[in-house]
Each structure stands twice: as structure tokens, then as C-alpha cells.
Amino acid sequence: MRFISWNVNGLRARVKNGGFLELKDKYTPDFMCLQEIKMFPWQKEFDLGQVCEYWNPSAERGVSGTAIFARDKALSATVDMGLDLGDDNGRALTLEYSKFYLVTVYVPTGTGGKRNEAIRKKLAWLDVFVRYVRELNQKKPVILCGDMNIAHQEIDLSYPDRKSAGFTDGERAVITDILESGFVDSFRCLHPGITGQYTWVSNRFKTGGLRLDYFFVSKSLRPEIVRADILREEAPSDHCPIILEINV
């Protein structure tokens, strides 16, 4: 199966200005997992063909939100982990299939307002989320993708600064916790040690970047990974799409 995950930074903009539909037609994925859709389903003015659409938009217009467009109908769909966390930004969406769960997530940035408070709230949100995916993993294999807004290792960003949101010790420890909870980073499985591979580059400066977007898969699926890459050439957004091909 082929999965694509992409922080589109506004789905309508990616459709209007080119990029999204072209990517879909070029790669014909079984699943397209999107973050920062910044729209409601009723605003859709484009044709996706015969796919199953699953949406979790933000309650606030023009921000955040997640969606998954799937070739096959899911057994069930769960938004926001089935919990009321007081965060109605549409950050998480889970589809259940017979052999696996598929989860897409848009993690809070940890920026804005008072820095320490923003990171504290981010870590509190992540604590609930990691426990949630860990529980799913005890039931059946999980494919977890999305914009984590965290660079895990120094090789995952241009300018390592442990005081900056997205690379503090507490945030990096969350990725470590996910990996130690029975998951693997599919990109690092196939590309260990490679540097200069970023999924986000500043639109303003066009220099350097960070690897913030991931496909984590249950360890039991590790032998089934065929491809895990960053589609750097397909990047009209500030984020690059990422692709996973896996036998599942």
C-alpha cells in the first residue's frame, strides 16, 4: 500500500495554486493524510474521484484541521482520540482497518505567547496522544503519520538549538518515547544517518530546514517497509509531502 502524508498549509490553496491534485494523480496513493487543511468539508470545490473522505476540521475557520482520503472505507473513524481535550483544532484523526490503524496528527507548534507555557501545553497534549497510540498498538499494528512539529535528532535540522521550540529536550524525548513504545521511524529505517533531509523549509529564507513530518509504524511492520522518502520536488507548501510504501 502507498501512503502520503502532507502538511498542506491550506488545502484550498494547494488545489487552487497547483500541487495537491497533481500529487494525487502522479502517485495514486491508497491513503492521503493531510494536516493544516484550514477548511471545512462544505468548502470543497474540487473533485477527488471515488475516494472515502474523512475530515476533522478545526472549529475555528482558517486554521489547523486534519483529513484522510482513502481508497477503501474504514471500519471506524475517530476524531481527536475520542476525547474532549479542550482543543477543538482538529488535530488527530484515526481510521481503523482489519489489519491496522491509521492515525494522522498535527501536533501543536509550541510557539506563540509565553514560550515555556506554549511548550508545556504542547507536551501535555502529546502525553495524552502518545498514550492513545500506545493503546492502539496493543490491539493491532499502527501506522502513525503527520506533522509532529519536533525534530528528533541533530541530523534532522540545520541549526540545532535545544532552546528552540521543536528541538527542546522535552519535545525530543516524546519521539524517543514513541520509538521505545513499539514503533520505528520508517525514514530512518531505510536512511540511517543521512543528513540534509528536511520536510520543512522557511518560505522566507529558503535556507536550512527541519524534519518535522514522520511515518512511524509498529515494529511488527518493520520488515514490510518498501519505501520511505521525502518528496522534496513536490513542495509548493512550506512542508514537503512524505511517502510510505509498505506491505500491509
What does this protein structure show overall?
The chain is α+β, with helices and mostly antiparallel strands and 248 residues long. The protein has one domain: Endonuclease/exonuclease/phosphatase (Deoxyribonuclease I, Chain A, 4-Layer Sandwich), CATH 3.60.10.10. Helices cover 22% and strands 25% of the residues. It has helices at 11-16, 20-27, 115-137, 169-180, 186-190; strands at residues 2-7, 31-35, 52-56, 66-70, 76-79, 92-96, 101-106, 142-147, 183-185, 213-218, 225-230, 242-246. A six-stranded mixed β-sheet has the order 3-4-2-1-12-11. A six-stranded mixed β-sheet has the order 5-6-7-8-10-9. Helix 3 (115-137) links the parallel strand 7 and strand 8. Helix 3 runs parallel beside helix 4 (169-180). The longest helix is centred in the middle third of the chain and has 23 residues, at 115-137. The chain is globular.
Provide keyphrases for this structure:
248 residues; alpha+beta; Deoxyribonuclease I, Chain A; 5 helices; 12 strands; globular
Helices, by number, come to 5
Question: What is the total tally of β strands?
Answer: 12
Structural class call reads alpha+beta
Strand content: 25-35%
Mean pLDDT: 94
Number of domain modules = 1
Topology:
Elements: E1 2-7, H1 11-16, H2 20-27, E2 31-35, E3 52-56, E4 66-70, E5 76-79, E6 92-96, E7 101-106, H3 115-137, E8 142-147, H4 169-180, E9 183-185, H5 186-190, E10 213-218, E11 225-230, E12 242-246
Parallel strand pairs: 1-2, 7-8
Antiparallel strand pairs: 1-12, 2-4, 3-4, 5-6, 6-7, 8-10, 9-10, 11-12
Helix pairs in contact: 3-4
